[in-house]
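Below is a filled-in request sheet from our internal design queue. Each sheet records the structural input a requester submitted and the sequence that came back. We keep these sheets so that new team members can see what a complete request looks like end to end.

REQUESTER: design group, bay 2
PRIORITY: normal
MODE: inverse folding
CHAIN LENGTH: 245
BACKBONE (tokenized):
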């Protein structure tokens, strides 16, 4: 099966990119191949009529195209892929792993990622520019609270470093990127890396993630140098090429 993945450097598509790469490694190129379709941020290609009418009416990346079916929303895409290949997620019948897995997938998507979008684009959430500073301060506090809650959850796992314990799942790729971005964007006004340094289980997960072959392969394609998750640096690209700069 061959897919097209639409996205931009260091944007939410990088989560899907890592998942595709990891799955391709597991099932082999005959079962899964993909092509990256870079969307040109500098000309707002994601807001073009063509993109809005055929790929995602929200004007957001990522979009995965499977055959002639586009799928948007990061969580939906990674769940779709995990279920299709029966890898990187507990099976639908697995108890109690599956409800726990779904709970954290929705938490990452609806709570942590949603608040990070406020952190990245605060001007979209205020009427008056003077409200941006206080909004950012409160949002960073909320994000730090979500990370601390995830740290508590990870601390309960004795079987392994991942959010589901022993089993690496799509959750870990998603969480890793959200941790990365929380410290980077918006440039100069993101969460202090010190917040993550004080969360040892989250640090351990990020360190494990850093070494996965899929991660090591994908990040350079986004012009990102290691370390990718712990005290990360932005892509070596001009500001207008990256969505949340
Ligand atoms: N809820 C969406 C959020 C995706 C998202 O925030 N994409 C960003 C890039 S990281 C984007 O396309 N931003 C463009 C914009 O907001 O105008 C998802 O999970 O796919």
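RETURNED SEQUENCE:
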């Amino acid at each position: 099966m061959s897919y097209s993945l639409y996205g931009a450097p260091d944007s939410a598509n990088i989560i899907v990119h890592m998942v595709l790469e990891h799955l391709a490694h597991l099932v082999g190129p005959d079962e899964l191949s993909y092509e990256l379709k870079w969307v040109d941020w500098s000309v707002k290609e994601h807001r073009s009529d063509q993109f809005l009418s055929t790929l995602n009416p929200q004007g957001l990346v990522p979009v995965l195209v499977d055959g002639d079916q586009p799928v948007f929303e990061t969580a939906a895409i990674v769940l779709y892929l995990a279920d299709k290949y029966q890898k990187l997620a507990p099976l639908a019948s697995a108890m109690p792993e599956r409800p726990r897995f779904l709970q954290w997938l929705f938490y990452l998507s609806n709570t942590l990622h949603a608040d990070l979008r406020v952190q990245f684009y605060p001007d979209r959430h205020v009427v008056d520019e003077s409200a941006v500073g206080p909004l950012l301060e409160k949002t960073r506090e909320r994000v730090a609270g979500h990370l601390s809650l995830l740290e508590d959850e990870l601390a309960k796992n004795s079987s392994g470093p991942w959010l589901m314990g022993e089993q690496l799942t799509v959750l870990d790729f998603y969480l890793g990127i959200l941790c990365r971005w929380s410290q980077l964007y918006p440039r100069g006004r993101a969460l202090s890396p010190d917040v993550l340094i004080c969360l040892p289980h989250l640090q351990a997960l990020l360190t494990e993630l850093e070494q996965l072959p899929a991660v090591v392969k994908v990040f350079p394609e986004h012009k990102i140098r290691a370390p990718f998750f712990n005290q990360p640096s932005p892509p070596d690209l001009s500001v207008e090429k990256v969505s949340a700069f």
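SHEET NOTES:
- The beta strands are 2-7, 33-38, 63-66, 69-72.
- The radius of gyration is 17 Å.
FILED BY: M.R.
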